[in-house]
Amino acid sequence: MKSSTSGWISGFVGVVIFAGSLPATRVAVHDFSPLFLTTARATIAAIAGTILLLLLKQPKPRSTDLKSLVITALGVVVGFPLLTALALRYVTSAHSIVFLGLLPLCTAIFAVLRAGERPRPAFWLFAILGSSFLVGYAAIGKVEGSFEGNLFMLGAVVVCGLGYAEGANLSRKLGGWQVICWALLLSLPVMLPIALFTMPESFKHVTQSGWVGLLYVSFFSMLIGFVFWYRGLALGGIAAVGQLQLLQPFMGLAISAALLHETVSWQMITMTLGAIVCVAGAKKFAA
Question: Strand, coil or helix: what is 124?
Fold first, then answer.
């Protein structure tokens, strides 16, 4: 199997896992504060990642890699989880998922700025068109939201795109799962004390759904998903494989409708389906 094909398969698996992140976060923030949820998920994932690094006897990253690891950690370990958790206190997960339509384009931009990739001009046409399908409803449609929630989601998209591109570029040297594990370990000295400080006095109020949401975003969204995602980006190209994120809103909307009983309008579905068509075009012209 060609490395590019393997990269697209790995990237798709990562997107499937990430699709449940926002619905799971929305469930969890009903029982946990955004700050505790952010730091707790990072702490749990960091402990699991550290165990993997020790068991598989991975060499320490070089000092020259620390800057990229810090950027990766700030983007995907701290920034995106915290900003989305804050946003989901103001907007529904279905509404927030639409903003993820900007993430593929943002990732591609940082792939150029941070990883030196140079997609063909036609690629940008499909990338912009695909993102337009997903954000169009949020811009002109009648959706329930708030200025604060939209602002937090936009910030989340920017820092996440940076973290994706930076981590994927470093994955070509260290390996995909190693990058996320080292990034998590690097953030542990900060995240653990905050998690302990913001921990609720009692967990009696926490529902079963809250625990499931916390466990999902800790193990799947924060660790397992990145194992596949960074491998996919590194093998298939950051800008190219990053366009698979256009499928994530469609999957996430389906999860929100099925599990959270949130309303998903036909306009949102139509625009998401239109974005899917753009993935093929972006893939063709990415190289």
Answer: helix
| Dist. CA 22–CA 252, nearest whole Å | 7
The dihedral of CA 136, 139, 143, 148: what is its sign?
A: positive
Chain mean position to CA 17: 10
Please state, as a whole number, how many other Cβ atoms lie within 10 Å of the Cβ of residue 158.
18
- As a whole number, mean pLDDT of residues 134-160 equals 76
Structure tokens at 262: 């949130």
- Cα–Cα distance measured from residue 51 to residue 159, given in angstroms and rounded to the nearest whole number: 27
Identify which of 149, 29, 31, 172 has the alpha carbon closest to the alpha carbon of residue 97.
Answer: 149
Q: Please state, as a whole number, how many other Cβ atoms lie within 10 Å of the Cβ of residue 61.
A: 19
Per-residue pLDDT of 108-143, as tens digits, reads 999 999 988 888 888 888 888 887 776 666 555 555
Once rounded to an integer, what is the mean pLDDT over residues 226-253?
87
Distance CA 75, CA 114 (A): 14
Listed residue (65, 50, 110) closest to 238, CA to CA? 110
CA separation for the pair 275, 209 (Å, rounded): 31
Contact 25, 217 (CB under 8 A): yes
Q: How far is CA 251 from CA 18, 130, 136, 276, in A?
A: 9, 15, 18, 11
- CA 270 vs CA 87, 132, 250: distances in Å: 24, 12, 10
Q: How far is 269 from 21, CA to CA, in rounded Å?
A: 19
What CA–CA distance (Å, rounded) separates 15 from 226?
9
> Which two tokens mark 61?
């990253």
Collapse the DSSP code of 88 into the 3-class scheme (helix H, G, I; strand E, B; otherwise coil) and give the result: coil
Taking only the tens place, the pLDDT of each residue in 203-237 is 999 999 999 999 999 999 999 999 999 999 999 99
Answer whether 122's CB lies under 8 Å from 108's CB: no
* pLDDT score at 138: 57
Tracing tokens 């698979």 back to the chain, one arrives at: 244
